[in-house]
Amino acid sequence: MAADDLPVLIVGDVHGDIERLAAALQPYPASEWRTIFLGDLVDYGMFGVGCLRYARDRQNTDVILGNHEVAMLWALQDPTRIGFFISIGGHQHDLDELRADEPLQEWLKTRPLMIKLRDGTLVQHCGNDDYRMLLGNYESDPVNAINSKASLVLEAGDAHLLWEVMSGKGVFATQPERLERWLQHTGCRRVVFGHTPHRNAVPARYHGGKAINFDGGLSRSHRMYRRGAPLAASVAPLED
Question: Cβ(229)–Cβ(216) under 8 Å?
Fold first, then answer.
């Protein structure tokens, strides 16, 4: 069965906690699910590069970029940004490991910023519409245009713009009008994201399910980790 025909499993921010990631995925065999990682697999936890490889090698899996992957690539390209990378939870050993693995670097640089699913779901890292900064005035296919611009930006070595685009606060939870405009602009019926930890036992749904947050604080090393945060708050099937 093609990956597009499989039920979709969403994985929120992992942040280097490969043990909890493996535990969360255990009930969902890779051959039976299309798995989509929402970015921020790296930083805070000690196994960021290990999480990247885990996701890359999992069958029927897509990975989108998070702002922490962007910061890591930025530090790789520009040594003056290493201090910033470490200040947001990065680890020198992860940076060194990525530097030594050129195939993984190239794979990471070509990850999209968003995916539009056949059912009209838009998958992106953060719950805001700052991605508009990557668009021109008249884009007939905004999702493809954003992904293409992001690829060009990374190829040119200018990660600063992507960091600005992907690091803002989530607005969809509190600004339904802005959410509606973004859905209309991208031609989607709902948006799925991570980036901003929530405190629900399951993914947080806003505005009748038009916006769904899968960052349930999975990583035990994250500064906002809440003891006992359930795995199902970050890793769960995408339901109608």
Answer: yes
